[in-house]
UniProtKB/TrEMBL annotation:
PANTHER family: N-(5'-PHOSPHORIBOSYL)ANTHRANILATE ISOMERASE
Domain of life: Bacteria
Gene Ontology BP term (one): L-tryptophan biosynthetic process
Name this polypeptide is given: N-(5'-phosphoribosyl)anthranilate isomerase
Catalysed conversion reaction: N-(5-phospho-beta-D-ribosyl)anthranilate = 1-(2-carboxyphenylamino)-1-deoxy-D-ribulose 5-phosphate
């Protein structure tokens, strides 16, 4: 069975679409540079609307403020922390212990060699998110609509359970899963009309494609 996370949710309408379509996870972004950034108040309202069988994920980027992370976890009743920056294994392990919730660590991928970084998080994270490496100088570490060569994952010995992200949409998710064997996929820009503006119809189409896998 393949499940899906819809990341960058910021409105009740798109949250409802994700839930209705069968998403296993929904993501809230706590990163001011992102067009998908939400306040604690927004996240709290959205989390209150999310049924318990759908897990809430908070995405953070190089946040060194433990109190901010702690407040986000409690305000939004987060089930998962997703670290999407250059967090070290030590920082990752610290936040996992500190927050007391499941932790996912993103690993940016462009070449096969990039995958080796995942092993350094074996004892620090619960799950690895393989995402496309952003261009040099990009403001956002993810959510750029870029994909990496999925064949790079062929035969790779994953150190942890993992998520496939980066450039996915309703049209290509079946190919992505067929090539990589992913069991959990993560989409953001692929279900948007423009950066930060999710489409109810695109969310529904993506989740319908996943349901057929």
């Amino acid at each position: 069975m393949v499940t899906a996370k819809i990341c960058g949710i910021s409105t009740a309408e798109t949250l409802d679409a994700a839930i209705a379509g069968g998403a296993s996870h929904v993501g809230f972004v706590f990163f001011p540079k992102s067009p998908r950034n939400v306040s604690f108040e927004q996240a709290k309202a959205l989390a209150a609307r999310t049924p318990s069988h759908v897990k809430t994920v908070g995405l953070f980027v190089d946040n060194e403020d433990d109190r901010f992370v702690d407040e986000a976890v409690h305000w939004a009743e987060l089930d998962v922390l997703q670290l999407h920056g250059n967090e070290s294994p030590a920082r990752t392990a610290h936040l996992r212990r500190f927050a007391g919730v499941e932790l996912w660590k993103a690993v940016p991928v462009r070449t096969r060699a990039d995958l080796t970084v995942a092993a350094s998080y074996r004892d620090a994270a619960d799950r690895i998110v393989y995402d496309a490496k952003p261009p040099v100088g990009a403001d956002l570490p993810g959510g750029n609509g870029l994909r990496f060569d999925w064949k790079l994952l062929d035969g790779f010995a994953h150190p942890l359970p993992w998520v496939l992200s980066g450039g996915l949409d309703a049209a290509n998710v079946a190919d992505a899963v067929g090539i990589t064997g992913a069991r959990l996929v993560d989409v953001s820009s692929g279900v948007e009309d423009r950066p930060g503006v999710k489409s109810v119809d695109k969310i529904a189409a993506f989740l319908q494609s996943v349901a057929r896998l």
